[in-house]
Write a structure and sequence with these properties.
Elements (H helix, E strand, L loop, with lengths): L11 E5 L6 H7 L2 E2 L3 E3 L15 E3 L3 E5 L12 E5 L8 E5 L2 E2 L7 E10 L4 E9 L5 E10 L6 E10 L4 E10 L14 E8 L3 E8 L5 E12 L2 E2 L6 E4 L3 E10 L5 E11 L6 H35 L1 E4 L2 H17 L26 H13 L2 H12 L2 H12 L22 H4 L5 H16 L4 H20 L1 E3 L4 E3 L17 H24 L1 H11 L3 H12 L5 E2 L4 E2 L23 H4 L2 H6 L8 H7 L6 H12 L9 H11 L3 H12 L16 H15 L3 E3 L2 E4 L9 E8 L2 E8 L3 E5 L5 E5 L2 E5 L7
Parallel strand pairs: 27-31
Antiparallel strand pairs: 1-9, 2-3, 3-4, 5-6, 7-8, 7-13, 9-10, 10-11, 11-12, 12-20, 13-19, 14-15, 15-16, 16-17, 16-20, 18-19, 21-28, 22-23, 24-25, 26-27, 28-29, 29-30, 31-32
Helix pairs in contact: 3-18, 3-19, 4-5, 4-8, 4-19, 5-8, 5-9, 6-9, 8-9, 8-10, 9-10, 9-11, 9-12, 10-11, 10-12, 10-15, 16-17, 17-18, 17-19, 18-19
InterPro entries: 6-hairpin_glycosidase_sf (IPR008928), 6hp_glycosidase-like_sf (IPR012341), Gal_mutarotase_sf_dom (IPR011013), GH65_N (IPR037018), Glyco_hydro_65_C (IPR005194), Glyco_hydro_65_M (IPR005195), Glyco_hydro_65_N (IPR005196), Malt_Pase/Glycosyl_Hdrlase (IPR017045)
Family: Belongs to the glycosyl hydrolase 65 family.
Protein name: Glycoside hydrolase family 65 protein
Length: 767
Amino acid sequence: MNQDYIKPDNWSIIEEGFDVERVKSSESLFSIGNGAMGQRANFEEAYSGETFQGSYIAGIYYPDKTKVGWWKNGYPKYFAKVLNAPNWIGIDIEINEENLDLHNCTEVKNFRRELNMKEGWYNRSFEAVLKNGTEIAVNIRRFLSLDLDEAGVIKYDITPLNKDAKIVYKPYIDAGVTNEDANWEEKFWEPLEVKKGTNEAFVTAQTFKTHFKVTTFMHNTILANGENINVSPSTIDSTVDKVQYTYGTIIAKGQTSTIQKIGGYTVSLNHENTLAGAEKVIKSAVALGYDTLLQNQIEAWAKVWEMSDITIEGDVKAQQGIRFNIFQLNQTYSGKDSRLNIGPKGFTGEKYGGSTYWDTEAYCIPFYMATKDQQVARNLLTYRYNQLDKAIENAKDNLGFKNGAALYPMVTMNGEECHNEWEITHEEIHRNGAIAFAIYNYYRYTGDYSYIPEKGLEVLIGIARFWHQRASFSKDKNQYVILGVTGPNEYENNINNNFYTNYIAKWCIDFAAEQIEKVASEYTADHKRVMEKVNLSSEEIKEWKKVADDMYFPISEELGIYLQQDGFLDKDLVPVKDLDRSQRPINQKWSWDRVLRSPYIKQADVLQGFYFFEDHFSKEELKRNFEFYESFTVHESSLSPCVHSIQAAALDKMDMAYTFYLRTSRLDLDDYNKEVEEGCHITSMAGTWMSIVEGFGGMRVKNDQLHFSPKIPKEWKGYSFKINFRNQILKVAVNHNETTFTVDSDQDLTIIVNGKPEIASKFVQIN
C-alpha cells in the first residue's frame, strides 16, 4: 500500500485536509460519470498548482498519428486518444477583487471532499483566508445526471465569514482544451460556432479528422440565501472557442451567495443539430430545477444499487473498496448504447487510449450479465459483431491472412487497431480467445442461445480461421505450435508456445466447430445463411480440427505444471518474496531488457487459462500451478489480483484470497501501483466483483444450473450479493454460521450448494 489518506466509510470516498501533493490523485479518485460523459474532480475555480484537467465524452476520440522511434511494417497508423472534451465546469471567482485560488490562499482549513456513491454526487468544502484578509466558507456540490445524461449540475456556495464581500462569478465554457496525452502536441478540436443568450451560452466544435461535432453548453443562475436574484451578466467575453460571463454580487457577512451552473454536451452521434439539442437539454434541466434534479439522481442511483450492491459486515475498508469499484463501473457504462464500450480508464484519465480492450470480454461481461438485464451484455457482444469486418481487414492487411480470418484489435475505438506497440499489437493475440469465450460465457449464463446463430457464429468462424492460419506444424515436435507471441503476462514478448495462447486457440477451434454442428441441426436457415456468407466447407473445418487436436502445450513433468512458454525454466527463478521491495514496481525501476529476462509475471497468465477453463483441470493441477506461478507474480497489472483471489479461495487459501481481494478492491484507493493520478483502473474493477461472487461465493454455472461453494474471510462478519440469473433475482447472504439463498419471485430456483441440490425460494432459506 502506498497511500492511506482516504477515510474509511461504507458509502463515501472522503478526503480531509488540503495537500497539494494529493490533488492529482484525488482528481482521479473523485471522478464522476453517467455513462455518456464524465470528468475528473478538477476544481471549478482557477487553480495554479499541479492539476490534470480532464472531461470526457463517450464514443468521441481522435486518431493521433503513431509516434515511434523506428517504424515497422504493420504498425497502426494512429493511436486513438480519449479526448479531453471542452470544459464546462469552469467558474473563475473574485472575492473583494482577489482571485480565489487555493494554491495561493494564506490559509486553507477544514478542506473536505466526499464522493457519495449511494446518491451519486461529489461534494467539496473548505474555509480559506485570502491574501486580502477575507475569510470565506465554500461548499460545492456537483453531479452528472443519470436520467438526463447530457447534463451536469454544479451548486457553488460562498459564505463570507469576517466581512461583507463583493463576489464576482465568471462562469465559462471553453473548447480550447488540449490533451494531457498527445503524441504531437496537436490541438484536437476545431471551433465552429459560439452562441450567447441571457444566462446561457453554447460553443460548438468538432474534432479534427473524425469530425465529431459537440456543442458544449452552460446555463447560470445566481442566488442569495437560496433565492434567485435574477442577475444578468454584466459583461460577456467570447473568442472563437470560449464564452465567459461575469456576474457581480454583494453579500453580507454570514450570508450565502450561490451560483448554480447547468452544463454538458450534445454530440453528433445522437443529434443531427447539436445546438438545438443543447437548447432542449437546458430547457428540460431548468424546468426541473436543482432540487428535483438532485432528487432524481438519488432515486436513479438507488435503483442501480438495488441490484448491484454487495454488502460486507465488519470490514469497512473492504466494504468501501467493493462499492467504489461497483460505482465506477456503473458510472462508466450503462448498457444503453451498443456503440459504446468500457474503456480501461473510463472517464477518469487518458492513459492507454481506446475504448475497448480484451478486459471487456474477460472481466466486465460477467458483472454486467449478473447485475443488469442480459441485453446489456448482449450489446457488448453485438459491439464486436459489428466490428467483425474490421477484424478480418486487420488480419488480412497486417498479417497476410486470408479467407475471412479475423484478428480483433488489442485496442480500438471503431474496430480498427489503434495500439502502437508492435509486440502487443501483433503478438498479444490471445485477445481473440477472450472474445470467443465471452460468447460462450454469455450463453452459459443467460441460456440465450439466439445470439450465436444470429451473430456470434460468424465471429467464431473468423476467429477459428485465424488460429488455424496462425499455428504452424513443427516436425520436431510433430505437433502444431504458435510462435512469436505475447501472453497475458506482458513482461514476456516474442515468445514461443505460450500455454494460455495455445490452449485458448485449441478451445476456440473446438467451440466453433461444435456451434456449427448445433446451428446446422437446430437453426437450419441461419446455418445456410452463415455458411454461404462465409463460404465455409466441411473440409476446411477438418483442417481446423487437425490443428486443435494436435496442439502443443509446454509442460514440466518434474514439477507437474504447464510452462508459461518454452524455456521458462531457463530463467533465474528467484521468487518475488526474495526481491528487494525497493525494486518494486519493476516496470518503473528496471530497464525493459531486465524485465524481459526476469521470471517475474505481470499478471495471471497460465492461471488465466485455469480461471477460464477451471473444469478442464483437477484441483491438484490448479494447486501445483497456482503455487508455482503465484510465487513469481508481481501483480503490476490491475487485472491480476482478482484471478489470484478467486483461485486462492477455491484452494481454501483464505488468508491469501482476502489479501488479494483487498489489493484488487483498493488498488486505486490505496494506489498500490503508484499511478492513480493518471486515472483509475475501471475494467479491472469488475474483477473485484468476481473476487466476491466467484471467489468467496464460489458461484459457477454448470449444466444450466448455478453452483455455489460459499466461504467467508475471518475478517468479515458476513456478506451478501444479488445476481440476475435467467430473469430470476437471487440473493446470497453468507455469515460464519449459515448461507441463505432467496429468490425475488414466486418461482423456485434449483441450485447446487457444495455439491448438493437445494431449492431457493421466496420464503424458504437454506442454511
